[in-house]
Specification:
The chain is an alpha+beta fold. It has helices at 2-53, 141-159, 171-180; strands at 84-92, 103-112, 117-123, 128-131, 135-138, 165-169.
């Protein structure tokens, strides 16, 4: 009987080691995916804005969207500087199937002309905020409810900002942009595949 308990304990210990190893691999894979996504988004933000400014992205469709600045809740109390340019970057989940896209990624690209620096600030898509005409819900729903105008209104009014410039890309444009600035190579191991 004592021998059985030892074998049970040994089996349980081996099982716990395997579970712990799987959990460690899962966490490591999650971190790798997060780093890959953030790297891709940063490449997108800096590369797209820079290349667009230099006129190197003429192959992309440039859809000009007119927004009424009276409708985007520009804050009177937000700090402003002639040396700082803020551009809202929307990454939308538009699959061209007729559904209204949500903004799955929302980042403020800040260009400091005086210091020659660029900063990217990510906004949490699941932030619970007030959306004009829709009550309180997730921040990324604003784009689906009213496009970039309502999304800017929501961000400006909830975060005391004065964003007026924006760039929107979908899945298909994102792929082209990443490829046009050199691409991103990811090594996916067999245990990481879904």
């Amino acid at each position: 009987m004592n021998n059985d308990n030892t074998q049970d304990f040994s089996k349980n210990k081996d099982y716990m080691r395997r579970v712990s190893k799987r959990e460690e691999i899962r966490k490591r894979n999650k971190r790798r995916r997060a780093v890959a996504v953030v790297s891709a988004l940063l490449l997108f933000a800096v590369g797209f804005i820079g290349m667009k400014g230099l006129g190197l992205l003429s192959q992309f469709e440039d859809r000009q969207v007119t927004i009424d600045e009276k409708n985007i809740a520009i804050s009177d109390t937000a700090l402003t500087s002639k040396n700082i340019i803020n551009i809202m970057l929307f990454g939308i989940d538009d699959r061209k199937d007729g559904t209204k896209p949500r903004s799955d990624s929302m980042m403020v690209l800040t260009i400091d002309k005086k210091l020659g620096k660029i900063k990217v600030t990510s906004l949490m898509r699941d932030s619970y905020v007030k959306i004009e005409g829709h009550g309180k819900t997730k921040l990324n729903h604003a784009y689906a409810y009213g496009g970039p105008e309502l999304a800017l209104n929501t961000i400006n009014s909830n975060f005391n900002l004065n964003l007026t410039k924006f760039v929107t890309v979908d899945y298909y444009e994102m792929e082209k942009i990443i490829d046009s600035i050199g691409g991103v190579t990811l090594e996916v191991k067999s245990e990481e595949e879904l």
